[in-house]
Hints:
By secondary structure, the protein is of the alpha/beta class.
Amino acid sequence: MKRRDLIKALGLTLGATTLSFNNYAKIAENKYEYIYPSGKMADPDKPVTAITIGAGGRGNVYGNFAHNFPQQMNIVGVAEPHEQRRESYVKKHNIDSDKTFTTWEHVFDQPKFADAVIISTPDDLHYAPCMKALEMGYDILLEKPIAPTVQECLDILELAEKNGNIVAVCHVLRYAPYFVKMKELIADRAIGEVISIQHFEPIEHVHMAHSYVRGNWHNSKETTPIILAKSCHDLDIMKWIIDKPSKKIAAMGDLKWFKKENAPEGSTARCTDGCAVEQDCPYSALKIYHKGRRSTFVFNLSENKENHGDEILEKLKTTNYGRCVYRMENDQPDHYVTSIQFDEGITANFSMQAFTSYAGRRTRVMGSMGDMVGDMKELVVSDFRTGEKTTLVPKAEDVENYRNSGHGGGDWLLMRDFVQAVSKQDSTLLTSTISDSIESHMMGFMAEESRKTGKIMDIRV
């Protein structure tokens, strides 16, 4: 038997384990599809009931889980100030009129009437409804970031632990099959000891302009810094994969491009004002929203699609989405890098960049016996001992439509686990409880402090 085959057969690993292919389907030479999760999704004895506070984009992602899996969850209440969004949500979930509210405060004027509350409000409106829900005994699905300040995050953690509520933070990448497999391989020492990680989030230039220049998160003082609003997922996934305490963090970044001094000659306050460079501008609101019909959900368009063109033009004349990207009141950095020191000498680098033509996170993990390189679609594992490269492709077998829910399937796989945790009153069925997720938030707050002060920051939880 050749030495390479002997290593595989006997597991002689020199400090690492080799890949086992028992649960993989071979789809090409050195390329395997792995199945996650195994087995069928178990239904609870009765559907978990939930109230959605904030029926915007994220509220609809989680609400759509209930719509598609009514045996798992039933949405029985909603609070949403925008009339059209509220009515659409009520219609989709058949919510009674006495359980339909304009603001979150009205939900808690009534006695507890559901098992859980889904908090998917804007970032600065997480703290108050979460604290009230905890006081009233609701279990909670809490959109990230937990809250805009360190103290508010710690307050939520303290009250949740005091009252024993289940609080799941929507760190959805922890539930994506791609990252679950990456963590399993690292824990099994498939590449030996982890030495360092490089993680990259390409925001994609149009998405950056939509959300963090024109959109709801354009001003960090009114919402949260972009490292938390966008990239607390990434800090969290690095922490979760490494599974060691973080010690120190240093960050740099700035707003370099989307500012007034870079406005092209002939540009106007709005893309609809006869801008001389609109046709050549990659950030043209007319191109993105009117012609491309991209991200038009923010306009709450009518059901009559024939009117959408005129409706979009009107929105571009009256909302921030039609304004020139160089003339906004934005302050979020458009490039951001961090370096992190973890326990046992492990290091990590994270880079968030606006100026890419593509999206989708990329990760490189360097170990003593091999490395991993992946893009959330495929994970390539290289073994230093054998010289072989193996490509793994994630697949969620029994719930394949989860893959379309967002974040590599993580959105709805989180919902599946949340339902089980609430139904069985067992928080161990979740991988992103408030106590598990708090450290990566502290990493984000300290990164922003480092960026502003130029200091290396200690991370304390």
